[in-house]
Amino acid sequence: LVLGLALVCGGRADAETGVDSSASSSASFTTTTAGSDVLRPSQILTESASVNDYVIAIRRELHRNPELMWSERYTSSVIKRELDAMRITHKDVAAPGVVGIIGNGMAPVVLLRADMDALPLTEETDVGNFPEHLRSQKTGLMHACGHDGHVAMLLGAAKILKRNEHALNGTVYLVFQPAEEGGAGARAMLEAGLQTMQPKISTAFALHNWPYQETPSGTVGTKGGTIMAGSGSYEITVTGAGGHAAVPHKNVDVVVCGAAVVTALQTIVSRRVDPLDSVVISTTVFQAGGAASNVMADTALLAGTFRALSKKTFQWLHEVIEHVASSAAQTHGCTTDVNYAPTKDGVTREEYPPTVNDADAARFAMSMATAVLGATAENGLVREVSPVMPAEDFSFFAELVPSTMMWLGSYNESAGATWPLHSTKYLLDENVLHTGTAMHVGYAVAFFKNGGKFS
What we know:
single chain; alpha+beta; eight-stranded mixed sheet; four-stranded antiparallel sheet; 20 strands; elongated; disordered N terminus
């Protein structure tokens, strides 16, 4: 397979979206003719390697300056600085969100997305693998999910796409998205005008570094259908009647009530959910009382997360969590109030639906990756992965247009990149950045060469 590839089966692209509604389920390509201006697979990887020093430098600049969701102003300024230097037109959408625009201004449109927020963690990365001067310069803030790398890779792809703009038969929206870590920045950008930008989005692509053993550095992976769970949060206020701990019979003990609620919630997964369905309910916070050990509190606060791969199951969980919590508490004389939109520091924790890859788009992305990376069954550089329970607000893009979320393998023992996402010791293997850059470029180039079709 080579990109710069001509479609050998027919079909008509939708005039508005540029997506072929009659596309078959598998991609079929032939090589381009000599002299084509379109990047070939080997060129894409070579071009990506040529900008890798730039990508690493941007990643390190952002890593030293992490920002929490909806406060990514410095990150946004760096993005706009770099887009200006590349002479790429851009606009603010759901600021600090930024959208860069490359191409001929016509359909089809490929949306390439990078999230850019950090986490409220203090970095403890091994200085032997990542020197002190490269670590976060902000106490209590850290890029522990690799979004600094995501931004840098998309800027690297922007460089390559811009210098090949004359050969792009379509338009690329470079979407630098805030507030992925619970703030639904993707939905906010869509509602703020991204969804109605002209020409309209035909397909969306994103990747996430994946520092786990099933995806070692150098590999990529995806799958058709659900790839990530839907995610929600809950706060349960348990109300009883406080008093002196020496006379518990005159009180209503919220600790006993709360403990019963925590235990009962676990039976939803074990006894109410089909064993072939995937659900997680984790109560992670239990607060009751103060410093005095002889005082029973009036209220207790429970908080946690719930997740499901099925959208139907995810919606059903709202009802059953509320019912089970109320019933368990009432058994011990307490009442409950369940809040599914908890707010902290003025920011509401939003719910995300499951991330569902379009089957044709996912197969197309795997074919593209196979061609770009020279993947074979023997080297295993391109893999079909299993769905996971973490969530992603890329799901909002996937609900709108045929989309693909891809894992960028980044597990590397020799580089010390073995810690999981959201760990204070997390380390992004910079050796994989050029691969991610190539995946962005490859997806856009292949889609345009195919005339806005997946096959």
